[in-house]
Amino acid sequence: MVVLSAARWLRSRLTDRFWRKLEVLKYARHFRGRKNRCYKLAVRSVRRAFVKSTKARAEKKRVLRALWITRIEAASLEHGLKYPVFISNLVKSQVELNRKVLADLAIYEPKTFKSLAALAQRRRQEGFLAALGDGKEPEGIFSRIVRHHY
Amino acid sequence: MAGKGPGQERGRGRGRSEGPALPPGRRPSQGSASASRGRGGPGAPGPRRGMASYTKAAQQWATFGRAWYLLDAKMQPPGKIAAATVMRLEGKHKPIYHALNDCGDHVVIINTRHIAFSGNKWEQKVYSSHTGYPGGFKQVTATQLHLKDPTAIVKLTVYRMLPKNLQRRTMMQRLHLFPEDVIPEDIQKNLLQEIPQPRAVPKRLDEYTPEEIAAFPRVWTP
């Protein structure tokens, strides 16, 4: 006799539970305590870790920028300039280097950074002359603004 | 450029660029040990390449070695003294700074007995503490504390200016305070550079020579 509903008597059983849990546990292996071994504890920790990682992406930009600024401040103080003076005079000289590049230059290219500091100092002096001088002195060289037409 | 201290033994700004061959992974954006920053020292000069260069070992020592700085606190306000030392203890005077880098230096402060508070702070500033027992709240003026321990004011000022994290205690261990000019031999041998004093000490009238007094311009005749 052919029993057509035999297949329905077979209850489907989960066979890959191990790998489903491993998928989560593999992100928890470096955690502390039982949450690096036990799935029920790990699930909660892994979810929080992912949430924190997502939210930290915006914070990372802030943190890195603050670090660059600290480093540029240290390097410019070595050359006798404070950070706001350095940055403002670089901007006025149309040197469009961002803080990331300036921090890397301060570490890896100290001579280049020194010349940038000298440029900022010179532009500062020209600014003072333009503000306080009588106007009879010739205009500064580094204060000239070049307009680029792209 | 101004800003180089007087007796500075280490040159700054003498590094060699790595060039485009450096793989981007070695950039120390989070601080690492592979910075080739040019804080070259007077160590063994490398092969002459047309200008002074430094061996990699000398450069590494100059960049990452922990330096010892001296600061004279005579006639200086303790707050400004502390601000200068905190910069050096944290390592924020170095372009390779990172909080996890442990790049702070040692600072030796001498003449802490001769610090100078401005205003009436010697009588008005109060240092409070509590022993933990009931009725153990103690308040002492700056004068009383200074007489009891001449290094306490500077120590407390520096401690309170440091960042309030676990590295504070380590940084305090790298701070060395001495009430007078006398420094132990082993610390004196380590000193590298003197930090310039934050406040320009004015001269008293009896410290001027008669020639200087005579050379001073007369503004009005009585």
Automatic annotation (TrEMBL), chain A:
It holds the Pfam family Ribosomal_L20. Signal peptide: none annotated. One of its GO terms (cellular component) is ribonucleoprotein complex. It comes from the Eukaryota. GO terms for molecular function: rRNA binding; structural constituent of ribosome. NCBIfam families: rplT_bact (TIGR01032). This is Large ribosomal subunit protein bL20m. The gene is MRPL20.
From TrEMBL, chain B:
It is found in: Mitochondrion. The keyword Ribonucleoprotein applies. It comes from Pipra filicauda. NCBIfam families: rplM_bact. Residues 27-37 have a biased composition (Low complexity). It holds the Pfam family Ribosomal_L13. One of its GO terms (cellular component) is mitochondrial large ribosomal subunit. It comes from the Eukaryota. This is Large ribosomal subunit protein uL13m. The keyword Cell cycle does not apply. Residues 7-17 have a biased composition (Basic and acidic residues). The gene is MRPL13. GO terms for molecular function: mRNA binding; structural constituent of ribosome. InterPro entries: Ribosomal_uL13 (IPR005822), Ribosomal_uL13_bac-type (IPR005823), Ribosomal_uL13_sf (IPR036899).
